[in-house]
């Protein structure tokens, strides 16, 4: 049986929104929503909240997650590289007291609009489909431009051949930070959550809100209460 562990990194020192990870949407704190997504996924064996703040740890525990204290050296920075190093540390600590982990799942608390089904699908890309890692994306149909001094130039289309947006074949996708799944050895050997054969799961753009600033939190609340009629 594949041992799949979800890790939810939730430090207390967020800058845009103080104690962001316990801000609520429909009476549920962000860290609690993430814990529920991990715990309700059928193909995840264990869900762990890692935090340096007692209120965040208490919220995660209330929702049923296991709790890990975050070392001080991991409390100052939420960059991708720092979170990946934190994941490596979590794996080492968890394996020191239990069985070896096969697949690591990263669930940020800041993606409250993802679904349990999306979590399960992303894990399945690694466990069942044989990819080394997988992530969630949404399709983007933006006309992109690049600045160069005082001028700009298009990067993904020719203005002379511009057609209706609906007919453009963009094949252009945005990483939305909702779910990552990765082979344990890939993470430990490369120090990166993404690599090797990379699978993906498509999400609707409206579910891809990443709560970083107060406006993002308000948008997530609005979309939770009033989801698009054509949304899934």
Structure summary:
This protein is α/β, with parallel strands linked by helices and 232 residues long. It is 30% helix and 24% strand.
Question: What features would you describe in this structure?
Answer:
The chain has one domain: Alpha-Beta Complex (Spore Coat Polysaccharide Biosynthesis Protein SpsA, Chain A), CATH 3.90.550.10. It contains six helices and eleven strands. The chain is an alpha/beta fold and 232 residues long. The strands form three sheets. A seven-stranded mixed beta sheet has the order 5-4-1-6-10-7-11, sandwiched between helices. Strands 2-3 form a two-stranded antiparallel ribbon.
Instruction: Quickly name the level 1 CATH class.
Output: Alpha Beta
Average pLDDT rating: 94
State the total count of DSSP E strands. 11
Q: Encode the helix/strand succession as letters.
A: EEEHEHEHEHEEEEHEH
The name of the CATH architecture is Alpha-Beta Complex
Q: Termini distance?
A: 31 Å
In one word, what is the shape?
Answer: globular
How many domains, in number, for the residues?
1
Oligomer kind: single chain
CATH superfamily: Spore Coat Polysaccharide Biosynthesis Protein SpsA, Chain A
Key words describing this protein structure:
Spore Coat Polysaccharide Biosynthesis Protein SpsA, Chain A, alpha/beta, two-stranded antiparallel sheet, 7-stranded mixed beta sheet, single chain, 30% helix, 232 residues
